[in-house]
Structures are given as structure tokens and as C-alpha cells.
């Protein structure tokens, strides 16, 4: 880790100005990802502007029944919030399935959205990596790709986005609010992360000096019957091989509303639009679930040794929807 | 003499470990926690090529980091004597982890070999600077792909304590005609130790006197090794390791960190602390070799084994490495009419492999005990019953007598506690919601050995006893156990005994390895206590104080204390001791087949959709001879099982076959079990002393891990019908 300077911002305007005016400055949330990357010599900011103490740590109910979650709400506080647990259980489950209790106590919502890939070669400064050093090549190709994506990847980069929280949020149609010296803008979470294409180093649509201030969840009736299912190599404290965030509203055995998103398989939290399309209005049967999974995975492609992910994703989608159907149809 | 165990005796009691309070209150100082005036901090720079020559090292940027004192490379480091070639005639030569003369050569022999060290006023400065050292290499062709090299493996040499190949009858011919057979290939990947405490050294030179705090399992040998490498008399070197935060074999030898810390202290004239990063632990300390194994079994329709073939290929390095007894269990476990075992090795441009908990036996038992389960399936015989039908009366390979073998009893006890009779024989026949449930069983087996240790015991007139011995405590409870033994032998309370250990200034002991430290030290403590008892009775007779307490006798005799010593630390004494020890080990090996053994029973749950495995129940019944302390012994056995769960389901070094570079050198990438992966573990011990070992101890350090991976693989097969022969058993292997 290189030496750097640190400032703690008292308010949003100061934070935004500080980063905007200092060439190699970065926002610091809980530091659980950024400081790791600095220790591993992957990121080298000269200045850290700590935003974790900004007064953005509330969860408020919106007039339409949605929620506004401040960007500095700690992951553990988010998971424990009563409104989150009852209206959007999938969010609470996604957070609790990630990292460890200690990390969740530190990590912020804003930081979680912007955490970077866990690709083994990205973390190894002795390996070429287009994301870390644009144009140097991608060492993952031809190497270990068990954690690589099956959807949305490019020849330049096959890495996945590691966040669990994002998968739940993207399924619910969350909107991200961003502040900069140029004002405020609202970005649907589905549009926040970019696909790698030829520029894997550009991971989001944010400018360097744009501060995430809040995430808003619209009211989603189906979300009361929602679930986050994470498949991983050990029972806890491991990133997802595949994860599924799903919500179903049923009228008898007809699906009236469906939300589905996938994690661990793409460079961004993956909203499963194709699958949702098949599900909505269809009967909640194993056959429908199979068709929905097949529709989403139609364009999935294996990269080296991750072919198992296509089958595993299919199975996990079907299993999660099956469980929700049993639970949703219970009186 | 051994006393019987009853309520009055300490041996057998679950006494709290005496180092517990120091460890739980933070009072225990580990090797990176010693403060010295002027202390400096070091950080290693690892090579990033598997084979090559250093053409240039640019240290300018590193040297410019504020706080950096020096950057040492092969260009400016002090000269170091090369390590001696390993020979069994001088066991201390085995202690060098590699044959490389660090920072004294421009040659690179593995990806991760330290090629420079930064010494700085703070650890942050040292690490920041280490990342700025730029090394240029001439790359040379390197052989790094174990799987690709397998066909080029050559036969591995055996030695007196580690048999190589063995043969009885004609196993291949018997296999060809056997009515029922299993013939399968199993593989295990490279494993890393990952003890809680990363390897650490604090080195201090005062003139030509060297003091080293090192997280070593081998104080005595490390001291000899440092004396040799740095060209000073052994008497000038003191190695201290009273607390070691776990070793498992990974701290048995001298790895680069230790040598380079001492070198850096010599170069700077200041005390140096070098605490390896987790990445360094993976790149600069030996690991468990990967293996490819074949087990072929032939049986008659009644399940009696007619043929047993077990062969293995492991890896060694061009610059050192340990042979492993992968096929040893096949020589002892089953009464097969014909047996053939053979071990071979490939040689790679790789970090030399090293011992890791039950070297050889841990991975060999995975293959053998999986194959036996497969055979049970072929035969339609219960796997426990199949084992009972093939339980030998004498050591199968050579007909030697067992000094002790209670595997039948262990199976009976374990099966009863576990409820094995409730298992339905059909695979994939039990389901609980989304979970497929299965039960598996496997045998644990680990050879028992006893070496020799020098010990002095002092009995003082105030009634206190001091045991002095340079053994090491890595959390196993050895100090507690030796205090129990001495207290019983001298008839004093437990609290009256103080045990001094972990210091090379004490009488020399064995390394902590091979599950033999407790029995070895116990043998010497008992002998010394015997001497003291005899001297005490002489004094009692002389003073007319027969039948009185030691305090009364010594007071009457006006003697402040009496001492007894076993072994001698003079040069001649040490040589004689080593000769005696080797002779005894060889004699013992010729006479007896001696081992700790046991039976693992487990239940697993496998998610029917995703292939996620959860181990839900565990019972293990062991024959480990006499149990001295139920608490510490059971904790060792339990720890072995936890480590075995890791081996079965998670652990795997990802070595890029293009470069030979480890890609997951961290605890986030290299998975070990977390609490949620470990079920309650029920341990039972038969607690019958072995007649040929001091106090009847057979050792508990390693037997626990053997058989664990097979028990889990067998349970997974029972749950799902899928037989996975390649570790670790991750979900991808169960969904495709
Ligand atoms: C061992 C380990 C295991 C983990 N396991 C999981 C897991 O299983 N699942 C999972 O989802 N995650 C996991 N994580 C990742 C963890 O969730 C993230 O590290 C965490 O959410 C990041 O939040 P933070 O506040 O600490 O971010 P920081 O590390 O502070 O910042 C991350 C990035 O976000 C930027 N940033 C922070 N706040 C803002 C803001 N308000 N506006 C704009 N930019 C901002 C920073 O500049 C930085 O680029 C794991 C982490 C570790 C270390
Ligand atoms: S997959 Fe992406 S992050 Fe990984 S090495 Fe390739 S370019 Fe880098």
C-alpha cells in the first residue's frame, strides 16, 4: 500500500467538491473493498475522502410505499431494518448472505454497489489484466475461469460483479441517486454498471467525482414473497458461484408479477428480463420455470472451465421459483 | 512404571491447558510480538517467474520510500553458507525447506522464491517499498504442470521411517481373475497449511550471538541449521518458540522467511521482525503435494480381498522436497491375499512440498477408503461389514505383529453411537425436503513412533517440580500433559509442577511432528521421574524418613533439591542419542506394526438442485492408546476432522498451469471450513494403553484427519449416487 492522505467530509457538498478538485482522490465508504485493493497495490489513490460519516444513514418510507435508503447505511443496519425485512425480504437475505458480520458492520450501501470484481488475475499484479491495465491482455482467458461470467462478458474481460445486494436491488428496480458539483441525477440500477465490451476498466456510468447519496426502492407488491438464493463453495463467507433474487405474486396458480435477477454470472447484476417475460401471466409450474430459465440462458456461453454455471444457474432459478410458489400459495 | 488410571491420578483427566489463560488474555507473546529497542521490520519480494535468472533489480523507488533502511538482494546481501544436502545420518540437515541459498544467488527456482527483502522502520514502509522493487528476469523453460508431468514420474525412494514400495504375492495376476473388482483413479490437489499465526521471525544479533524468536515446530534442528548457515557455533544461537499459533507441519522446516530475517538482522546490525503475509505463506512455505492415485481391488463374492493395488504419483521439486507415504495405509489396513503398493514422483520447477498433517496418509486414505466403499457397493455388502471381513490378525504386508489394534472395537463403538444400523443401503434413498441425505464411513490410521528427548526434572524441598525440555507447544497441550505425567509419577499435585519448554537453551527434544512428541517426551519424563523416585527412597532410608513426603525427606537430608537428567546435550551425548534413537526406531519398526486407528462415521446433506454439501453429523471412535488428557486429546482429534472437512470439500491451491503461479494465495480465495461448515463432532476413545509405548500413548495429532475425506465422499455417494474421485468435492462436480 502506498502512502495517501485522508480527509473526512462533514457534508455532501464538501465531499463532492473535495473529490472533484483533487485529481487522484476517491470516496471512501467502509473501506472494506477499497482499502483491500490499495493493500494489494491495485488502486493507488493519493487522497481518500471519507464519506461514511455523512448524514446519509437513514432508511425512510416514501409516500408511495417505497423506501429511500441512504448511501452510508451500513450493510448490517440495512439487513436488520424492519421495513426492509417485511417489504423486501430479498434485500435483507442478500445482504446477510454476503461477507461476514464484521464486514457487514463496516460496509456501506454506496460502497457495496461499487465494489470491484474478485477475478483472481485482477488481484494479481504480476498477471496481465485489461481492467487493471487497459490493453495488457486478459490472463483469465486460458487460465482459471471458474468464477467468470456466462452472460454479458467480452473477449477483453470475462469477470463478474461480486455483489449480492445489487442482485436483489436490481430485481426490485432500484434507482440510484447521485450528486456532483454539476447537480443531482437519478440512474436506474440496471444502467449503473456497464458491460465490459472493449473498455473493461470503465465499470459504471458514474464520473469519478459523482457521489452516491441514496438508493430508492419503488413499491413492489411481489417483493413480500421474495427470496435470495446464493450457491457457493462453502456455507458462509464465500462469493456466489450463482445467485438468484426472485419475487413472485400469485393469483391462484397464475403468476401476476415476477421479478428475477442473477448474480455471479455476469459483469453486472443481471436483471433476467427474458425470464420475467415468460413468467408473467403464466401458470406457476415446473415447466414454466424451466422455460423461463431457458429463455434467459439462451445466450449464455461457457468460458473455459465454467460450463457448469449454465446448468447450475438453470437449476437454481427453477429451485428458487419452486420454493416461492410453495410459500406464496400458502394461506 | 505406569500406574493404573483411577480417580486419584491426573493422567486421563480433562485438565485445562496451562497456557490457556496466557493465550486468552493476550499475555502470550508470539514470535512477531517481541519488542526490542531499535526493532526494524522486513518485507519479502517474491519472484514472479517459475524458473529464470535475475538480470537486474531496480531498488531505487523502494529505497526512496521514507523509513526504508535497506533493500537487500543477491547483489548486496551478506554471504550465507549453502544448506547441507539432506542425509538421515544428520537429521538436522532435513530441516532446510529448500536447497536454495536465498539472496546469495541470481537463480530463480520457483514462482514465489524471495529475491529481495526490504528492511524499514515500520512494517507499512517495508511493504510499500517491497511492492516498488522492480526485478527483471531472463526466463528459462520451466516444468510446472503436475498433470502433464504425471507420465514422467519415477519411482520414489523409501527410508527407514517411510516405506516406499511394497509387495506381497502377485496382486496384478489376482486382480485379473477376481470375480468382483474396482479399479479407479483418484486425485487430490495441492493444499496449504494456513495456520492461524502466519510464519514469523524476530532476529537479534549481539556480536556473533544470535537470538531468534521463530514460529518453529523444530527448535533444536532450527538452531543447528542457523548455526551452519551463518557460520557461528551452535552454542551462540538461541531459538525461542514458547508459543506457536498452529503448525501442522508447515513450521517443521526452515523456510526462506526465517533465514532472510536473520540475514537482514546481520546486514543492518539491528533487530528484525519478519511476519509473513498470508500471500507469503502460500508462496514461500512448502505445501502438501498434489497426487494422482490408482486403487484396484479384487475380491471373491464373499467380500474377501484377493488383490489390493495402490499406486501414487506426487510432486517434488528440483530444489528439495519430502517424499510422502501415500500408499502406506494399503500395507496395514486390509488382509488381502496379494498386495502391491508403489509410489512415484515427478520433479517440477516448484516450491518444494512439505509435511502437512498426516503427510501421505491423509491423501492416500482418501483413495483407499473410497475404493473400499466402491467395492462394498459392487458386492452389496455393508461397508463396515466388508471391513470387518478383511480385518487382519497380523500386519498384512509382512506378517509383523500389531503392538495394539482395536479397529473392530472402534467400529463397533462408533457405529453404536452414530446409529449406523439406521442407514438404508441404497444410494439416493433418503430425502429431507430439498436435501439428499447420506451416511458414510471410513477408517483412520496413522503410524505411531517414539524418538528420544533429553529432559531434566528437578524436585525441590519446597515440594515443587520443574520439568525442563526443549519441546514445542503449538496449541496441542503438551506442556499440560507432561505436567500431569510428572505429577503422577512423583506423587505431587498438578499445581506443583512447572514445565519449561520452547527454548533451545533447554535440553534438546524432538520436533513436533509425526504425532510422536507427546509419547517421546513422556518416555523421558517418566524415566527422569523414576530416577528421582529412586534417589528419594535412598535419601529416605538414609535419614530414616521412609514413607514421608518429598519435602520432609529433602528437609531432613538438608538437600535443597534433587535433579535427574535423561540424555545429554554435549556433542558426544547428542551423537550417541541420535544413534540410539535411530537404532530404536528401526528396531521398533522391524518388530511391530504400531499405529493409532479409528472409525469415522458421518452424515451429509446434499442440495438436490445445486449440489451444495453440508456435513450434518459426525462420530469418530479412536484407538489412540491411552488418553492422557481428554480435553486436549479430543481437541486434537476434532481439529484433524475439521481440517479433513476442508480437504474433502474446499481446499485447493489454484496453480496456473501456464505459469506455475498460485492464483488464490489468500484466505478469501483459498477456502478453509468456516464455523457453519462444521457440525458438532462426537469423539470417543477406547482408552486402552499400547503395551510398547510410554504410558501406552499412540499419538493423536494426525490420525484424526486420515479417512475424513473418504468418509465424506462415501456419504455423498450414498446421498446422491454420484462418486466423486477428485478433491475437493465442490458443487460443480455434483451438477454436471
Ligand atoms: C473477505 C470479504 C468477503 C466478502 N464477501 C462478500 C460477499 O459474499 N458478497 C458481497 O456482496 N460482498 C462481499 N464482500 C464485499 C463487501 O460487500 C464490500 O467490500 C462492501 O460492500 C464495500 O462497501 P464499503 O463501504 O466498505 O466500500 P469501500 O471499500 O469504502 O468502497 C468501495 C468503492 O466504492 C466507492 N464508494 C464508496 N462509497 C461511495 C459513495 N457513497 N459514492 C460513490 N462512491 C463510493 C469507493 O470509492 C470505492 O471505489 C466481501 C468483502 C471481503 C473483504
Ligand atoms: S477477466 Fe477481466 S478482470 Fe479478470 S484478468 Fe481478464 S480483464 Fe482482468
TrEMBL record, chain A:
The keyword Ion transport does not apply. It comes from Prauserella muralis. This is Molybdopterin dehydrogenase. InterPro entries: CO_DH_flav_C, CO_DH_flav_C_dom_sf, Diverse_Substr_Oxidored, FAD-bd_PCMH, FAD-bd_PCMH-like_sf, FAD-bd_PCMH_sub1, FAD-bd_PCMH_sub2, Mopterin_DH_FAD-bd. Coiled coil: none annotated. The keyword Kinase does not apply. GO terms for molecular function: FAD binding; oxidoreductase activity. Keywords: Oxidoreductase.
Automatic annotation (TrEMBL), chain B:
Keywords: Molybdenum, Oxidoreductase. It holds the Pfam family Ald_Xan_dh_C. GO terms for molecular function: iron ion binding; oxidoreductase activity. It comes from the Bacteria. InterPro entries: Ald_Oxase/Xan_DH_a/b, Ald_Oxase/Xan_DH_a/b_sf, Ald_Oxase/xanthine_DH-like, AldOxase/xan_DH_MoCoBD1, AldOxase/xan_DH_MoCoBD2, AldOxase/xan_DH_Mopterin-bd_sf. This is Carbon monoxide dehydrogenase.
